Structure formats: C-alpha cells, structure tokens
C-alpha cells in the first residue's frame, strides 16, 4: 500500500524530507516506485511537487530534501500503484480550487466498485486520471461545493465541514481501506482505517500520530528521512507507520481528527 505523511505546526517549520527513506521505513522496501508527491501550504495556496517515477531516481526529490520551504502544513504521498496507470494524472496528492482556496487530498487504500456508486459519481469536479482516490476526492469536493460557494470567501462553519467529511469517510470505508489526509487550507482532516500487510494479509492500524510541544523538544526522525529544523509551541505528525521509537499512537479504525496549528481541535469516532 501507499505511504502517507502529514505535518501541522503552529509556526512555519522547515521539513527536510527524504521520500525514498520514508517509503522504505514502512517496511515494504522496493515496491513504492510508482510516483511521489508533496504539498506545502503557504496561506490559502500550495506548492505542489509530483512525479510519476520512483523517488530514488528523482533529482527533484534531492532538491526537496535540501530546499523544501517553511510551511505550517505539509501533506505527502508515496505511491504503490493499484488502480490507474503510472502517470502524473494518477499521482497524489491531488489538488483543486474551491471557495478561493486550494484543497489537498491524499488517500491510502483500494475502493472497489467506487465508479458504480451513485454517491461518488463525477459531477462538477471531474477526475483527470483513472485512480479511485481522485474520484473519491472529486466526490468530497462536490459535497462541500455549495457551502464553500455560499460562504463567499469566508470560512464554512467547521461543524458543517466535519459532518460532511464524516459521512464521506464512512461511505468510503464500505468499499475498502480509507486512510486519508484532506485539507481545505484552514484545517487538516485525518481519517484512519485499516492497513493490510502485503505479505501476511495481517490487518494493521492505518495511521499513527505523534504530538509535540516546545517543552518536549523536536522529535528526531532523521533515520526515517524527515528532519524538522524548528518546533515552536505545537507540532503534530501523522504517518502510515511510526517513524521513530517514540510514542506514536495508532489511530483506531474510523477515527477522524481535525488538526490546526499543530494541535488536535476535534476528535470523533465514526461508526464501524
């Protein structure tokens, strides 16, 4: 399966990230050669870098490792292709504009039969590629379209957004593993599901969480390919696999988090 990573911090933080090491740390050395991508939020816009090739063979990845810009929110995805050809259109994270801000989505899992589900039919937002993940993202944006347009440049009520994302996550989970990261430029939504080990078929936690404050210090993630230059007041990391021996907490199946400025603002359990 693919690898997900996200960072939310109170102040812009420089993340030196080795995507090749990050994929290897997941324990599945070798397969993650079908593309990579990383999105750095800067206000309501994002710097998006993607390639439909192995991170280990990319000169751009070396640039990201050394010169990734400071950001308060970073979302990354390393692809192991299951649905859709190995090409840029199927490479995550996916982005779209809605309500005058960039929305970013990254998913880990297989959604069998999604194209036959009326609730996930392409409407205003249409996929560019063939992946089930992009179709799911288009469906989520369709559900959020009217509230964001009605807000006319203001933020949509967070409770309303949470309700829409929760219903979306529950419907996704009926089709297969639905671990995803989604941001609307205001908050980061994290939904955890299951994760199937490719060799043993063992069911594992889909996502892990680590939170830190300045008093606790910056976690040392260098062995996993992530280096944080600063940690100011609040920091939350999410990953498909624990990146260190520290106290990463496995998220439960159906757990939905809302994270902003490095802190968890809302947590709920969606019925399994």
Question: Overview of this structure, please?
Answer:
- This protein has helices at residues 19-25, 59-67, 132-151, 158-173; strands spanning 3-13, 15-17, 36-42, 45-51, 71-78, 94-98, 101-108, 179-183, 188-191, 194-196, 203-205, 208-212, 226-228, 235-239, 249-250, 255-260, 263-269.
- With 272 residues, the chain is of the alpha+beta class.
- The two termini are 21 Å apart.
- The mean pLDDT is 84.
In sequence order, what are the helices and strands, one letter per element? EEHEEHEEEHHEEEEEEEEEE
CATH superfamily: Aminohydrolase, N-terminal nucleophile (Ntn) domain
Unreliable stretches (pLDDT < 50, length at least 5) are none
The shape is globular
Q: Look at the helices and sheets and give the structural class.
A: alpha+beta
| Strand arrangement, major sheet | 4-3-5-1-14-12-15
Number of strands: 17
Which architecture per CATH?
Answer: 4-Layer Sandwich
* CATH fold call: Glutamine Phosphoribosylpyrophosphate, subunit 1, domain 1
Mean pLDDT: 84
The helix content, as a percent range, equals 10-25%
How many angstroms separate the termini?
21 Å
The DSSP helix count reads 4
- Give the number of domains: 1
Strand content: 25-35%
How do you describe this structure in short?
With 272 residues, the protein is an alpha+beta fold.
Can you give keywords for this protein?
272 residues; alpha+beta; Glutamine Phosphoribosylpyrophosphate, subunit 1, domain 1; seven-stranded antiparallel beta sheet; 4 helices; 17 strands; 34% strand
